[in-house]
Specification:
mainly alpha
């Protein structure tokens, strides 16, 4: 949840506490604040047990970051460098797996790939995926093939009006056979 979302939720909880003090039922509180009935009932239970203090947010949920602020700053500096500086010479991209390995090497802390991805986003870095290419790839041959053969293989395609989202085609009443039930135009419908 974003910080704006947390602030909005905190405001809703305070408003709910005020409404509970006025003896308003949780279902009506849910309608007034446009929250789920479940949330309103949970807030009401918390309010009954501990007052308004019980409704105060305890901060963002989830596990805490295992790295200190100083370590996060060092990690950001490492990510500003090229991966070759840290031993990855195949391509120059920071993948989540590489970041998780780097954290383990430099800070002796184990991070999963998904958690490393979240940490990269938190630090303002985007996830990068290396391009997989065959080692024996001949770029010149690929270029020649694209220019000479691809246009011929691709073909012109279908005109825009000829496509349909449906696999079946609806027939008009004139195309229907007379022998099917209801096909006789003279028979009145009931």
């Amino acid at each position: 949840m974003t910080s704006a979302g947390r602030r909005r939720r905190e405001t809703e909880r305070r408003q709910a506490a005020g409404l509970f003090e006025q003896k308003i039922k949780p279902l009506e509180v849910a309608q007034r604040l446009r929250v789920s009935r479940k949330s309103a009932c949970q807030w009401h239970q918390l309010w009954r047990d501990g007052g308004i203090a019980a409704l105060v947010s305890r901060g963002p949920s989830g596990s805490r970051c295992r790295l200190s602020q100083r370590c996060l700053e060092k990690l950001a500096a490492y990510l500003e460098e090229e991966p070759a500086v840290h031993g990855w010479v195949e391509d120059q991209v920071w993948t989540a797996a590489r970041v998780a390995t780097l954290i383990g090497r430099k800070f002796h802390v184990s991070y999963s790939v998904s958690r490393a991805t979240r940490l990269m986003h938190r630090l303002g870095f985007s996830l990068q995926v290396p391009v997989r290419r065959v080692a024996e790839r001949d770029e010149e041959a690929v270029k020649v093939w694209k220019e000479a053969t691809w246009a011929e293989v691709k073909g012109p395609g279908r005109p825009a009006g000829a496509t349909s989202a449906s696999k079946t085609k609806q027939t008009s009443p004139a195309d229907r056979p007379e022998a099917v039930p209801g096909g006789d135009a003279d028979t009145p419908r009931s």
